[in-house]
Amino acid sequence: MLTRARIAVLVSGGGTNLEALLRSQEQGSLSHGEIVLVCSSRPGVYALTRAANHGVPGAVVSRAGRSQEDFEAELQEQLLRYQVDLIVLAGFLSILSADFVRRWPDRIVNIHPSLIPSFCGKGYYGLRVHEAALERGVKVTGATVHLVNEIPDGGRILLQKAVEILPEDTPEILQRRVMEQAEWILLPQAVEMLCKQISEEGASRS
Q1: CATH label, 5-201, candidates 3.40.120.10, 3.40.50.170, 3.40.50.410, 1.10.730.10
Q2: How far apart are CA 144 and CA 164, in angstroms?
Q3: Which of 35, 50, 124, 137 lies in the 20 to 30 Å Cα band around 23?
Q4: Which residues are catalytic, by number?
């Protein structure tokens, strides 16, 4: 019998990449994993509504006004409570410390809306990435799914997909195209790949 890897999706906003993962799971293409928790660093975000609409438990571990240690201690408690195998950062805007990441070696995956190493690092998130690509005048951008490690901006690249930049693009139009043509395709593929590996290894955090 297949043991499905247990996935926690960490969010801070609307949850469009979460929606792509949920749909992939329901359509059967994410067959080696199961989303068991959606955890937000902010209360009231629409990603929690998306989780509820799909019958997935949601939790809020607020980052505001707390020490890094307290925030990560509560986050770790939630992850262990749900016996999570894999953490997916899907628009999660809170920085995780090197100490936290070390507890989850090769078990934290992130998606970034550019072709790393371009337009990544401090200050490059959300719409700012697409603004920078247009300001630079590049002809191609895209998205990257990578594993997270304790070295800032480090981690093994899993998948990348290029997206053409068009002359009439605004940051908002480009952001949407990158999501539709790259992020929503790559993230479920990468998560399924990792879950298959975890499932085959019989790994479990309990």
Answers
A1: 3.40.50.170
A2: 15
A3: 124
A4: 112
